[in-house]
Specification:
alpha/beta; 32% helix
Length: 229
């Protein structure tokens, strides 16, 4: 029997990260889940790691202890909203640490042990193109596109792919956060929110051998939202 493939996934206690971890476990992967919140998944193939992704020293230290990974999926995220002049700079710094700095530190620590043909998927957002009241969130998500395309170019000779998945408004706890009451999500043209399982299914495909030729891409799951630009 072959050894199960190992994936490191952040944000597995809820929302998109939880759906991704569950989908990978159902597909036979071993999953290391990195979360600040309490463990939700109970599965023999799942190992929970409590961590604050805004603490750089924690991220680097934990990453060095993880088993070699064939995949890194960075799904953890937060949204802090407010128009220019109303959003504290500390909120922007928090989003940058979680979305960008944590992704970078994890990738740097895991990369030496990643085999040829490994996969990196970063969960972005349709907001990366800019939305009023979400400038710092949009900026940190837009930065993921620059990371992905740069890493993809650097790692292509090793067959390692790097891609971003950018969902439109997705049915997660983040949408129901009272802190964003003044920036309600816009329902996609399909008439419903994106489902976390839909993002998870695309993630699983990008981690598969069939997706070896897809790298450096920003793939939208937008429910038709991009048709109305």
């Amino acid at each position: 029997m072959s050894t199960p493939q190992h994936a490191v996934v952040t944000g597995t206690s809820s929302g998109i990260g939880l759906a991704i971890a569950q989908t990978l476990l159902a597909g036979g992967w071993q999953v290391s889940g990195l979360d600040r919140d309490a463990q939700v998944i109970r599965d023999a193939g799942f190992t929970a790691h409590a961590i604050d992704l805004t603490a750089p020293e924690q991220v680097s230290a934990l990453a060095r202890t993880l088993p070699p990974a064939r995949a890194l999926v960075h799904a953890a995220g937060v949204m802090r909203t407010g128009k220019l002049g109303a959003l504290p700079l500390e909120a922007g710094a928090e989003m940058w640490k979680i979305h960008v700095e944590a992704a970078t530190r994890l990738a740097e620590a895991l990369l030496p042990g990643m085999p040829e043909g490994a996969r990196i998927v970063l969960i972005g957002s349709r907001a990366a193109s800019g939305i009023a009241g979400r400038s710092q969130y949009a900026a940190s998500k837009a930065a993921l596109l620059g990371l992905a395309r740069s890493w993809a170019a650097e790692l292509i000779e090793r067959g390692i792919t790097v891609n971003v998945i950018s969902p439109a408004a997705t049915d997660t706890a983040m949408l129901r956060d009272p802190a964003r009451a003044n920036t309600a999500p816009k329902l996609p043209p399909i008439g419903r929110l994106i489902r976390p399982a839909e993002v998870a299914a695309l993630t699983a495909y990008l981690l598969s051998d069939a997706a070896a030729a897809i790298t450096g891409q920003d793939i939208a799951i937008c429910g038709g939202a991009s048709l109305t630009r």
